[in-house]
Amino acid sequence: MAGAGVSCTGFVFHHCPPGPERDEALGLLRMAAPFREQQSGKKPEFLARYVERLVDQMDEPRTFARLLAELEFQAVRRATLGANASPVEKVDRGFELLTYWDPKRGRRQTGFGNLKKKLTGAKRRFP
Q1: Stretch 15-32: mean pLDDT, rounded?
Q2: Among the residues of 1-127, which ranges form H helices?
């Protein structure tokens, strides 16, 4: 809609004559911007939400080593208490793989690099 580097509100501000109609249009655009940002992109997948919950429960500092320790603990919980206790099946430090159970997709594996990205995303939610 707008040219490169110009926001929608800037476009309306510069191209519409001053008055109550422009003010109303600007107000509506300002209300719609957060909604648009919320709707863009994909919904966080199961593992991202799970890592966010773990990071939320962790004490400072929230490091990758602490996340791995918590995931290993969750794997032990699953082995001891059963599949309903935790979705984490195995943390393999040698191959740098996490094996987990996704309720919609079944058994999944992800590398430690992906886990680091999810940890970084989860840490952004906290001050």
Answers
A1: 86
A2: 8-15, 20-39, 46-57, 64-81, 112-123
